[in-house]
Amino acid sequence: MIQDLIIEKIKKLLRMKRGGTAGEIENALALAAELARKHGIDLASVNEDETTQSIRHVEEALTSRLPLEAKNAAAILVIFFNVNVVVKQQRHPRRVWHRQYVAVFVGTDWDREVARYVFIFLQKHFRNAWSQRDNGRLKNRAAFLDGMFIGLAAKLETERNANRPNETGLMLIGRGLKLRADYVQAHWPNSVKSDIESDKSGAAAAKWAGVQAGQKTNIRKAVDSGSAAAQAPRALPAPKRQLDLF
Fold this sequence. Notes:
- By secondary structure, this protein is an alpha+beta fold.
- The protein has two domains: about 1-45, no CATH class; about 55-245, no CATH class.
- Helices cover about 45% and strands about 15% of the residues.
- It contains seven helices and five strands, in the order H-H-E-H-E-E-H-H-H-E-H-E.
- The chain has a five-stranded mixed sheet with strand order 1-3-2-5-4.
- It is globular, with a radius of gyration of 20 Å.
- Residues about 165-170 and about 220-235 have low confidence and may be disordered.
């Protein structure tokens, strides 16, 4: 594909930043910018260390159903963690008459490892936050988990916008978007985008409790809880949640 060749050429030019004279670096960066402009490529999304061959996938087996905490965890990955997620059903390896869901993470080696860690952590964290909620009178689990997603997504968006240079390992920086999309299309051409709907039960107390729990969530020490704001749930609209289903 011609555009892939252009991107590879841009990457080579960007790698000139690591060596060469000042004049050579300036010329290389100017040429990279011109190539990107001419071919409609977002230069900020090009990672000079990434190649098409570095995009792979890894699978994480789930259960015979797809719980809400798994959907929300996968949606967080898609929005913030440099991976595409394909959710598929397949025959259970040990139970002949059973089927199971499998989450497939598509990205570079590093991004896949981060995604698996975050995915496993968030599922457990969502479940624990509900079972250990402060107000035991809250009964609407779906509204609570929906609120957790909204609160956590708002917090991560704040962190992303802050653009802290030493935290980009866990925050989306836009690398490989097209490469991952092409990979998904090549391996699962019949997959379709599916929206995850927000809870519409009107259980405001449960949702707000979830929002607060989501804003206190620490995926790593790099993501602190200091940005949690005392906002009403209506001030935190739910980001669009989409997964590829196959």
